[in-house]
Amino acid sequence: MAEVLTLPQAARRFRVTLTWLKRQAEAGTLPHLKAGSRFLFNPAALADALARMAAEYPRQQQGVANVS
After folding, report:
1. Domain residue spans in the chain?
2. Are 44 and 51 contacting, i.e. CB atoms less than 8 angstroms apart?
């Protein structure tokens, strides 16, 4: 069975704030499962999504649109 992290566990593991992680999940930017009021994360999928966001960050700061 795949590992699943709660919101606080994921925030600690990836060193981001709970608020930021929850807002990104609610916005659909990060993969998650909503179980009632709980947010659950697959660590591998979350790591991939965060890596993609990080790779795009300098381009977003410079005003370069993603063309893929």
Report:
1. 5-61
2. no
Q: What sign for the dihedral angle of Cα 17, 23, 27, 28? A: positive
Name residue 40's beta-bridge partners.
6, 33
* The pTM of the whole model exceeds 0.85: no
Question: What is the distance between the alpha carbons of residues 13 and 7, in angstroms, rounded to a whole number?
Answer: 10
The Cα–Cα gap between 39 and 62 comes to 32
Residues in the chain: 68
CATH number for the region 5-61 comes to 1.10.10
Average pLDDT along the chain: 89
Contact (Cβ atoms closer than 8 angstroms) between residue 18 and residue 6 = no
Q: Rounded to whole angstroms, how far apart are CA atoms 64 and 36?
A: 38
How far apart (Å, rounded) are the C-alpha atoms in residues 53 and 63? Answer: 15
